[in-house]
Design goal:
Layout (H helix, E strand, L loop, with lengths): L27 H10 L2 H21 L6 E4 L4 H13 L4 E7 L5 H12 L3 E7 L2 H15 L3 H19 L3 E4 L20 H8 L5 H4 L6 H17 L12 E4 L8 H11 L18 H10 L7 H10 L4 H13 L5 H10 L3 H10 L8 H13 L3
Parallel strand pairs: 1-2, 2-3, 4-5
Helix pairs in contact: 3-10, 5-15, 9-16, 12-13
């Protein structure tokens, strides 16, 4: 790996687009992280108060539910549910999408979570055979089916929040832990407009077009929310008019190993004897393998390890050991072989779609402008 030019702080190589290094060899992604989060100890009390003010506003609206928590059975969504129900006593509706690829470990964790807290719960199930046709179309046109899955999840959220007039959606996410959100060639879009553009003109359009319903209204709401964030205006300002989506870790942050200990003790959560990341999806290794096909000198754990290094959870030396192993053992995930067989694509067709695809071709100009503005000017 000596010939690979890497960030001297994390593991990211110079094969990434728009990758820059300062005079010490530190990459622009690490510098951005430092700018946003280096003073966390100074602002964490303020961020917690902001979070609690949002919750209080939701309670005062006196809707059937104070908040909605998307529940996948993974650590982050279960932690969001734990805080909403066990710590802040919110009237909570939790919602789960099952498109045929929800893992058994996740299903067990969902059952355990429901038994350990006071939440109502809804399953939104999509027929697996139909969903495989949708995933195939996304692979063919974008090289990636994850965007389709995330749009389905968000549709379930939108459908449920509208039905019960829920003012607040608390997601187990946040910019600090979104390891690829700023990586141009990998960053995912799950907006209804993107979904609509990808499937338009295909045979799956009539079967799934409802998932992009109200896309113009939803995009406007998203843009307004982004403008408010950039301007520093609290989310409580617009909560009365349309639901506010917030990422938990933008307000309350703990290292994942501390979170999993809390969940095992308080929510009956289990990792299934394996890795704690993305255990909720049966296809969890495919996106990481796809990264290695798309970008030279990338291992399946490069982005996650780099994120953990920035958070101080692992050392760069330990990350390099994992990186070396991953680069030398980049085998095709067994679930990819099975998945391709089910949707009727060969491995060669899959690789071609991944390598040649350009997601930006399916992004509207307004989305591009809004996204660039948001990531450039948003303050933490």
């Amino acid at each position: 790996m000596n010939e690979i030019i890497r960030c001297t702080r994390c593991l990211l190589p110079n094969t990434l687009k728009q990758m820059t290094f300062d005079e010490k060899g530190v990459c622009n992604h690490c510098l951005k992280y430092e700018k946003d989060f280096s003073n966390w100890d100074e602002i964490k009390d303020r961020k917690r108060r902001e979070f609690e003010q949002i919750l209080e506003k939701a309670k005062k609206l006196n809707r059937p539910y104070d908040c909605l928590v998307p529940l996948s059975g993974g650590k982050d969504s279960t932690y969001a549910l734990y805080l909403a129900t066990r710590v802040y006593n919110l009237r909570t509706l939790s919602v789960t999408l099952d498109n045929g690829y929800l893992s058994n470990v996740a299903k067990d964790n969902i059952r355990n979570a429901l038994a350990h807290c006071d939440t109502d719960h809804m399953y939104y199930h999509i027929n697996k055979k139909n969903n495989e046709i949708l995933f195939k179309k996304f692979v063919e046109r974008t090289g990636d089916f994850c965007n389709a899955c995330m749009r389905e999840i968000n549709y379930a959220i939108e459908f449920s929040s509208k039905g019960f007039h829920i003012p607040l959606i608390i997601k187990g996410s946040g910019r600090r832990v979104q390891y690829v959100s700023q990586i141009q060639e990998l960053s995912s879009l799950n907006t209804p407009s993107y979904f609509h553009i990808v499937i338009k003109g295909s045979k799956v359009y009539h079967r799934f077009r409802h998932i992009a319903r109200n896309r113009y209204k939803l995009e406007i709401q998203k843009v307004v929310g982004g403008v408010l964030d950039v301007a520093g205006i609290p989310r409580t300002f617009m909560m009365r008019f349309f639901p506010q989506h917030i990422g938990l870790y933008d307000y309350i942050y703990k290292p994942f190993n501390e979170i999993t200990e809390i969940l095992k003790l308080e929510m009956g959560w289990k990792d299934g004897g394996g890795e704690v990341e993305h255990l909720d999806c049966q296809l969890h290794d495919i996106p990481f393998y796809r990264h290695t096909l798309k970008i030279p000198n990338i291992g399946k754990n490069t982005f996650r390890s780099s994120g953990l290094i920035r958070q101080g959870i692992i050392s760069r030396e330990d990350g390099l050991v994992q990186e070396k192993y991953d680069l030398e053992n980049n085998e095709i995930p067994p679930e990819l072989k099975s998945f391709l067989s089910k949707i009727g694509l060969t491995y060669e067709e899959y690789v071609h779609a991944v390598v040649s695809s350009d997601k930006s071709a399916h992004i509207s100009k307004i989305q591009k402008i809004a996204r660039e503005f948001y990531h450039k000017f948003r303050k933490y």
